[in-house]
Amino acid sequence: MLLRSTRYYPLFFIAWLILFQSTGFSDEINYPASKISNIQDNYHGNIIDDPYRWLEDLNSLETSEWIQSQNKFTEKYLNTFKEINLFKEILSKAYKNETRSVPFRKKSKHFYYLNNGDWQQSKLFYKNNNESEEKLLLDPNILSEDGTVSISSVSVSPNANLIAYSLSDGGSDWRTWKIKNIKTGETLKDLIRWSKFSNAEWKKDNSGFFYSGYNEPKKGDEFESINTNQKLFFHKIGQSQTKDELIYQRTDQPEWGWGTTITEDGKFLILHVSEGTDERNRVFYQSIEGNNNKIIELIPDLKAQFSFIGNNKSIFWFFTDLDAPMGRVIAIDINKPDEEHWLELIPENEHALIDVREIKDFLIGQYLNNVSSEIVLFDKKTLSKSYMKFNDEGIFSSLSTEVDSNIFYFSYTNYVTPNQIYQYNALANTLKTIWIKNVPGFESEQYLSKKVFYPSKDGTLIPMFISHKKNQTINSNTPLLLYGYGGFDISILPSFSERYFAWMKMGGVVAVPNLRGGGEYGELWHQQGMLDNKQNVFDDFAAAAEYLHKNNYSQPTKTVISGRSNGGLLVGATFLQRPTLFGATLPAVGVMDMLRFNKFTIGWAWESDYGSPEDVDDFNTLIQYSPYHNITEDVCYPPTLITTSEIDDRVVPSHSYKFAARLQKAQECNNPILIRIETRAGHGAGTPKDKTIDYIADSYGFALHHLSKN
Question: Is 235 a catalytic residue?
Answer without folding.
Answer: no
